[in-house]
């Protein structure tokens, strides 16, 4: 790891202590997750996929609400995260809420925190239920990355403006001869969205920065990616992905599994792939990165009063959530900065956490997070800790695979890791879990979950 990252970072180390103190002052009522489901994650194949983002949200929400003992109109609000809604999906949460039969009087709003939009929606619901403003909330995220628009470039926009202003044949002819083939080159919104405008690096390039700073080898990254696929295959075969609901398109096709899984992949196959973001000496490839994907994930959050009124089952409880920010060139370290204050505020240590979900934006990013937490000098100088944060047992991290194998629909992933972590905790009779992810633009988010075998 380079000395620059040991001695610098842009944040005061003692700020983490202040964050933890502020978090401890919050007094909220208990907030429960009673149920949740998601669509299969569908891999983008060049053309727009069969579902828009609102279609996906509707599919997940319909299945989820259909099995509840209350009507959709009895919800207090709907909150969803989405990064790239389509042109006909302004305030996509409201669009989905109306399609789901929540009624004209149901407030619905959309949040955007890049890769953590789904988790931001959950935290927004958590705070509203915790303060008593709401009792039943549908929250989560949706994204159809394959539907990200192609836009006109500025030259074409200006030309069209001139064309519209040409009122006679002579002026139209003069404008027409100014049209150039370069004007037709589209702006790919997805590529723009995955590039940080402040530091000028796309997300893959920030992963290369981490691989260099933390001396992560190509072999380590590929090995991690293979393991992600192996774990997802095992989860599918073992029936561990019960949160997935089959969805149907307008042509009668059905989708029941995550499409990103490559059962046959191995280190040799991945080792033959070329670097994508630094073609000269890079290590980050398509094989050890998350996949461009479409999918939605929704959960129902409830107060104790709502649980008792409707006799609702309880999956677990959201205890707390924390957000952090850091240098955008190292955005992948977001979990490193978000988790320690979260645990400190709740008087917990890493060994108190039974299972972890850290979103796999890149294999290099997850490995860098683990390395930073184990590095005493980094934790002291950058995080303000007294010693290294600790080692995370990989057998308790992303136990059923992650975004490298199943995909990363950016507005959805923050909700997916929370829902699946609760499933893992139930399966293993575990008490505590932490879901965390890095966020484009240089942020990190982490959510602390608890469950009790007795429910409330």
> Which topology of the domain at 3-147 and 292-447 does CATH recognise?
Peroxisomal Thiolase, Chain A, domain 1
Proportion of residues in β-strands: 15-25%
CATH superfamily of the domain at 3-147 and 292-447: Thiolase/Chalcone synthase
Mean pLDDT: 92
The helix content, as a percent range, equals 25-40%
The CATH architecture of the domain at 3-147 and 292-447 can be given as 3-Layer(aba) Sandwich
Write a structural description.
The radius of gyration is 23 Å and the shape is globular. It has helices spanning 3-7, 15-24, 53-66, 92-99, 117-130, 154-165, 169-176, 189-193, 203-213, 218-238, 267-271, 304-310, 334-345, 363-374, 376-381, 403-406, 413-427, and strands at 31-38, 42-43, 77-81, 108-111, 136-144, 150-151, 187-188, 247-248, 254-255, 293-303, 316-325, 355-358, 432-439, 443-450. It has a domain at 3-147 and 292-447: Thiolase/Chalcone synthase (Peroxisomal Thiolase, Chain A, domain 1, 3-Layer(aba) Sandwich). It is an alpha+beta fold and 456 residues long.
Topology (elements, then pairings):
Blueprint: H1 3-7, H2 15-24, E1 31-38, E2 42-43, H3 53-66, E3 77-81, H4 92-99, E4 108-111, H5 117-130, E5 136-144, E6 150-151, H6 154-165, H7 169-176, E7 187-188, H8 189-193, H9 203-213, H10 218-238, E8 247-248, E9 254-255, H11 267-271, E10 293-303, H12 304-310, E11 316-325, H13 334-345, E12 355-358, H14 363-374, H15 376-381, H16 403-406, H17 413-427, E13 432-439, E14 443-450
Parallel strand pairs: 3-4, 3-5, 12-13
Antiparallel strand pairs: 1-10, 1-11, 2-10, 5-10, 6-7, 8-9, 11-14, 13-14
Helix pairs in contact: 2-13, 3-4, 5-17
């Amino acid at each position: 790891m380079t000395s620059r990252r040991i001695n610098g970072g842009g944040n005061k180390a003692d700020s983490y202590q202040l964050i933890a103190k502020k978090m401890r002052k919050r007094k909220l009522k208990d907030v429960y997750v009673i149920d949740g489901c998601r669509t299969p994650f569908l891999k983008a194949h060049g053309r727009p996929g069969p579902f828009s983002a609102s279609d996906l949200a509707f599919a997940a929400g319909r299945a989820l609400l259909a099995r509840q003992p209350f009507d959709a109109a009895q919800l207090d609000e709907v909150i969803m995260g989405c990064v790239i809604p389509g042109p006909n999906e302004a305030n996509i949460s409201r669009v989905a809420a109306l399609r789901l039969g929540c009624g004209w009087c149901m407030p619905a709003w959309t949040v955007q925190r890049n890769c953590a939009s789904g988790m931001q929606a959950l935290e927004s619901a958590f705070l509203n239920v915790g303060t008593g403003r709401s009792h039943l909330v549908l929250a989560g995220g949706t994204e159809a990355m394959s539907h990200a628009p192609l836009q006109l470039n500025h030259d074409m926009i200006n030309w069209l403006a001139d064309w519209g202003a040409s009122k006679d044949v002579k002026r139209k002819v003069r404008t027409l001869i100014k049209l150039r083939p370069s004007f037709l080159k589209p702006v790919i919104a997805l590529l723009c969205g995955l590039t940080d405008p402040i530091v000028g690096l796309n997300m893959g390039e920030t992963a290369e920065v981490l691989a260099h700073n933390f001396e992560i080898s190509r072999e380590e990254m590929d090995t991690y990616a293979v393991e992600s696929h192996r774990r997802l295959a095992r989860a599918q075969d073992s029936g561990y992905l019960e949160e997935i609901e089959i969805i149907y398109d307008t042509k009668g096709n059905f989708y029941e599994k995550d499409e990103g899984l490559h059962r046959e992949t191995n280190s040799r196959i991945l080792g033959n792939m070329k670097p994508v973001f630094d073609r000269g000496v890079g290590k980050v490839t398509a094989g050890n990165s998350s996949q461009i994907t479409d999918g939605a994930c929704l959960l129902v959050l409830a107060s104790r009063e709502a649980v008792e009124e409707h006799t609702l089952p309880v999956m677990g409880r959201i205890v707390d959530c924390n957000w952090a920010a850091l240098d955008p060139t190292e955005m992948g370290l977001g979990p490193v900065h978000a988790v320690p204050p979260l645990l400190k505020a709740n008087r917990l240590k890493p060994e108190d956490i039974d299972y972890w979900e850290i979103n796999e934006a890149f294999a290099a990013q997850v490995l860098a997070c683990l390395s930073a937490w184990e590095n005493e000098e980094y934790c002291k100088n950058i995080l303000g800790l007294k010693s290294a944060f600790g080692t995370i047992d990989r057998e308790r991290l992303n136990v059923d695979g992650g975004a490298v194998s199943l995909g990363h629909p950016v507005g959805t992933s923050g909700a997916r890791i929370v829902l699946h972590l609760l499933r893992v905790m139930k399966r293993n009779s575990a008490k505590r879990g932490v879901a965390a992810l890095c966020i484009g633009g240089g942020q990190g988010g982490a959510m602390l979950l608890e469950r009790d075998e007795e429910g409330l």
